[in-house]
Design goal:
single chain, alpha+beta, TBP-like, six-stranded antiparallel beta sheet, 7 helices
């Protein structure tokens, strides 16, 4: 399949999920309620809210995150704009439990509906071995509950303006019981390397990915090939 055909399929799929916006070719960035510094604390609060709603919560094992450019409808980067993607994963063992795979999916669906979010993806795989639950907020933030591989929560800001000259928001500690070290929190380590500096200096085998997690970042990095639950999300 050529590139144009693949992009056509991806665009149609994203539209079905409610993630695409019908914009003219010369569309400007959307008006947003917040910039990159303001949206990131809200995203972390949404993780904390989800954790609060989940009974017998076992704790996330890892926090990761990526900063992506914001392309216009022609694919050109929009200067001064960025998208923040935040992910929390359970361990492999916890990811396979019925509590996480089944009860938590139902609990989050109900919580997001009660909060007034639009459910844009609520579907099991044909063999019912995987499940995807995605919700969109009126302010443009998307939440995605992933029940396959490492089960967890991904939140994406959509395109937001950059405050000042720094696209990286200020460090906040991870929610949900993530261990406070560079290996378990590569996103936090990238936002402020000094937080885990003492640990890193005593460990000569520090993982390079924990030091530079934004290198070669791919949008919706947990998604299967050809699947993007966030669509263009401008």
């Amino acid at each position: 399949m050529n590139r144009r055909g693949l992009l056509t399929i991806l665009s149609a799929f994203a539209f079905a999920l409610g993630g695409c916006t019908d914009m003219p070719k010369e569309a400007a960035p959307p008006e947003r309620e917040f910039d990159n510094e303001e949206v990131y604390p809200l995203m972390e609060q949404l993780v904390a809210d989800a954790v609060e709603a989940l009974p017998e919560f076992p704790g996330f094992a890892r926090r990761d995150g990526f900063l992506h450019g914001c392309p216009d409808p022609k694919g050109n980067p929009i200067e001064g704009w960025v998208t923040i993607e935040l992910t929390y994963d359970f361990s492999t063992a916890v990811s396979e439990t019925p509590l996480v795979r089944e009860e938590y999916t139902d609990t989050l669906r109900e919580a997001w509906i009660d909060a007034g979010y639009e459910i844009t993806w609520d579907e099991a795989s044909p063999d019912e071995d995987q499940y995807n639950l995605s919700a969109s907020r009126s302010d443009g933030i998307t939440l995605w509950w992933r029940v396959w591989g490492l089960t967890g929560l991904t939140i994406q800001s959509g395109c937001v303006p950059i405050s000042g000259d720094d696209k990286y928001p200020a460090y906040l500690p991870p929610a949900g019981g993530v261990p406070l070290n560079a290996e378990s929190d590569p996103f936090g380590n990238a936002l402020d390397p000094s937080v885990y500096a003492a640990e890193a200096s005593s460990d000569e085998a520090t993982d390079e990915a924990a030091v530079q997690p934004f290198d070669n970042a791919v949008a919706a990095h947990h998604a299967p090939l050809g699947i993007n639950p966030f669509g263009s999300q401008l």
